[in-house]
Design goal:
Helices cover 2% and strands 44% of the residues. It is built from one helix and 37 strands. It is elongated, with a radius of gyration of 26 Å.
Length: 375
């Protein structure tokens, strides 16, 4: 049963809908097609397998005439049809369907702020020139890293041009600004390529970067960790550090897995005055000025790149210096503050070696070790 387009004034049974009222739509064994922009003050709720209620909340600023039913497909399971954005052919006064796409991502994000909203970017270049917040639970998907480009040529006066609290994936982001994209509040960036700009990517507040490739930025990923995860990423050819970890909050945690960092100033740079735990597994640091450079002034960093019970499996290869320890000496029960068990250095595994305080290990390219390091 195809329900005719409704303007939000009449229920299917002909009774009037007022603010605070409810539209009840009942499927009869066939798909029920609805187009519904995600508008503040309006919700669609599933009652049972075939019945849905469309509610205009009391005090909605737009009123019932603002509701149009054409962006949802309802079957036995509720399916949200993405709002489509086409920078070449779209119009921001369109409905956002595949046949009538919007023109700008900014307008789509303004309309689709509710959790569960989906936005689809077509192939082509989409520009972002002002600050944008992508809310939690909102998913934005491109047509692929070779097809969809998100361009950030300028950003006004905003600290970050894009603040991502939802999910952004399957696209390329090219930046001409210092800080184009910050991911936080459980946000996820996945299957993406980033290039240009200052700090290519900032991660904080439980953010995750999954299968992200970064080239040519000043710094690759800047992490202000609060349970931040970096997995299956590649960072290459940055003028600054590939991974910069700033301990700016208490009890920060960063997990890095299966990530490659090559041809940067420092593959991993740590700097913290707050308690900070960094765990790295299965990752490669190659052809950098420093594989790992550790700096801080307090008893803060716990760097776990492998332990006897959990070998790191990390590879250090052809770095000018594999490990540089510039930190202040600190006191621990055993004096050990960084572990590298199960990692190789130019193909050699220095199993069981402990670099003593204020010692160097030229064979494994370790310098300025002010603290004990365990291999």
């Amino acid at each position: 049963m195809r329900v005719p387009r409704l303007d939000g004034i009449d229920r299917p049974d002909g009774t009037e809908v007022t603010q605070g009222g409810t539209i009840r739509l009942v499927a009869s064994g066939e798909n029920l097609e609805l187009v519904w922009p995600s508008i503040e003050g309006a919700t669609l709720n599933r009652v049972d397998g075939t019945t849905y209620t469309f509610t205009i909340d009391e005090g909605s600023p737009l009123g019932p005439r603002a509701l149009h039913l054409d962006d949802l497909v309802v079957t036995d399971a509720l399916v949200v049809v993405p709002t489509v954005v086409d920078a070449a052919t779209g119009r921001d006064d369109a409905s956002g369907t595949a046949a009538h796409p919007l023109r700008t991502l900014a307008h789509a994000v303004d309309l689709r702020r509710a959790a569960g909203s989906q936005i689809s970017l077509t192939a082509g270049t989409h520009e972002v020139t002002d600050g944008m917040v992508i809310g939690g639970g909102v998913t934005i998907t491109g047509a692929g890293v070779s097809a969809t480009t998100l361009s950030v040529p300028s950003c006004g006066t905003f600290l970050y041009c894009i603040a991502l609290h939802g999910t952004l994936s399957n696209l390329r982001i090219h930046s001409g600004v210092d800080k184009a994209l910050a991911v936080g509040q459980d946000g996820v960036l996945g299957d993406a390529e980033l290039s240009g700009g200052g700090d290519a990517l900032v991660l904080q507040q439980r953010a995750r970067a999954l299968r992200v490739s970064i080239t040519g930025a000043s710094r690759g990923i800047v992490v202000i960790p609060e349970n931040v995860v970096v997995e299956d990423c590649q960072i290459r050819d940055t003028s600054g550090a590939g991974l910069t970890v700033l301990g700016l909050t208490s009890d920060g945690r960063l997990t890095v897995e299966r990530t490659v960092v090559e041809r940067t100033d420092a593959g991993l740079l740590t700097s913290t005055d707050y308690p900070l735990a960094v765990t790295v597994r299965g990752s490669t640091f190659a052809e950098n000025r420093y594989g790992v450079r550790m700096t801080y002034t307090d008893d803060a960093l716990a760097l776990d790149m492998g332990s006897p019970l959990s070998p790191g499996g990390n590879v250090f290869r052809d770095n000018q210096t594999h490990i540089l320890d510039e930190r202040s000496p600190r006191s621990t029960a055993d004096g050990i503050i960084a572990t590298f068990a199960g990692s190789t250095f130019n193909g050699i595994d220095p199993e069981g070696v402990i670099v003593g305080q204020d010692a160097e290990l030229p064979l494994y390219n370790v310098v300025n070790a002010h603290n004990r390091l365990a291999f």
